[in-house]
Amino acid sequence: MGLLFKTCLITAVIALDFVSTVASAETRSVPSTQAEVQLSFAPLVQRVAPAVVNIFTRTIVRERRISPLFNDPFFRQFFGDRLPGGRTREREESSLGSGVIVDGSGIIVTNRHVIEGADQIRVVLNDRREFEAEVLQEDERSDLAVLRINTEGSTIPSAILAPEDTIQVGDLVIAIGNPFGVGQTVTSGIVSALARSRRGLTDFGVFIQTDAAINPGNSGGALVDMRGRVVGVNTAIYSKSGGSLGIGFAIPSSLVTRMVQAAKDGGRIVRPWLGAHGQEVTAEIGEAIGLSPPRGVLIDSLSEGGSLMKAGLKQGDVVLAVDGKPIEDPLELRFRVSTKPIGSSVEFDFWRAGETLHTKVRLEAPPEDPPRNITVIQEGSPIDGAEVANLSPAIKEEFNLSIRGGGVVVLRLLSRGFARRLGLRQGDVITSINGQDIRRVQDLITSAKTRPRTWKIVILRGGRQISLEVG
């Protein structure tokens, strides 16, 4: 009997608690204090969601139907892309993503991979208005693009980009975007890591990591802090299935701000040049040089006239921090510097012979030395149809090349040239032809006049040396 009484009593308490919860839900009221506001994401979503847009792209893909016979390498050696016969068929590909309005006049930021190769870009606002968009700026290295829509003089809702380093690990964030085309969605989570290095996504590879669900279509959307500011642009997830596993990455707002400003100013992104190569200080390296705990970036080499050499750094120094922000690897060092404008000065903390030192480093643009001398190689050489330029610090920065010494870089390949059929790619560096060093474009032009029976070409691609032979 006692057990029955206790059970009935517990049931009654649960029932009363349920009635109380229902009554509370029916009598909801608008939060009146800051503490109450923080109990819900609704005020933040209402403020930021109108500035998050859907981006639809349309791409026309042209295909040629030809006889399988002409796919034979023997025929392609003679005809290349100029294959006889066949009909051209066009098909349309479409994709979707997200974007964030960062200026009420119609400036929108998104991921470059969202609009890459698109023939038409349409932006759909939260209130269902649609606009054609033009690309103001796109940067493959950071995977960012800036678009503009013609609002015909009207001001549209916009979001605020947060200043640099305003969030910490453990802070709450929300992700707003358009996953799977189902319409605008909001997910929440926390910041799992700052300046997380993730190679392969972009050349900078430094991201905010969050467990807020980011799914396909969220790319280009907003990662928002609890003050309603955009702290990052959602760009990628780590997933084995294609769905969110709670590991998402966003490009930090500091990098986004630089991209947007460059687009508004009508110029291209010019990143500071340190004139140095370095490597992460591992446990083994730290033990060898006496740096404990191991941290920072060990300077392997310095270029004459580079910013770090001018500031007094030497080979063997270890960069520990930039403007007070700890540096863990070369990717993070590159990121910290790339968010700063040319001509500004930053504080470097570095380690030398057991002592931590400090210095100011003035950031400068990479020099165009030697001049580019952009040239298209003509017939008579197996690299005809390749547009090439002298390798300079500026070119190395643009193409993210860590090559030491000279060479000639391939800027682009003409569709009808033999260089494309040879397998050359944009960003390849030609260093030798038939045993002769290629240091300048003129060396390449001179080698084309020799007309040997066999051509032996050495190129550098992605840190690897590749040898090509053409008979």
Summarize the structure.
By secondary structure, this protein is of the alpha+beta class. It has four domains: 49-149, Thrombin, subunit H, CATH 2.40.10.10; 160-265, Beta Barrel (Thrombin, subunit H), CATH 2.40.10; 276-362, PDZ domain (Pdz3 Domain); 375-470, Pdz3 Domain (Roll), CATH 2.30.42.
Topology readout:
Layout: H1 2-26, H2 34-37, H3 42-48, E1 52-65, H4 73-79, E2 87-103, E3 107-111, H5 112-115, E4 120-124, E5 130-139, E6 144-149, E7 160-161, E8 172-177, E9 185-197, E10 206-210, E11 222-224, E12 229-237, E13 248-252, H6 253-265, E14 276-280, H7 283-289, E15 297-302, H8 307-310, E16 318-322, E17 325-326, H9 330-338, E18 345-352, E19 355-362, E20 375-376, E21 386-390, H10 393-399, E22 408-413, H11 418-422, E23 429-433, E24 436-437, H12 441-448, E25 455-461, E26 464-470
Parallel strand pairs: 7-12
Antiparallel strand pairs: 1-2, 1-4, 2-3, 3-6, 4-5, 5-6, 8-9, 8-11, 9-10, 10-13, 11-12, 12-13, 14-15, 15-16, 16-17, 16-18, 18-19, 20-21, 21-22, 22-23, 23-24, 23-25, 25-26
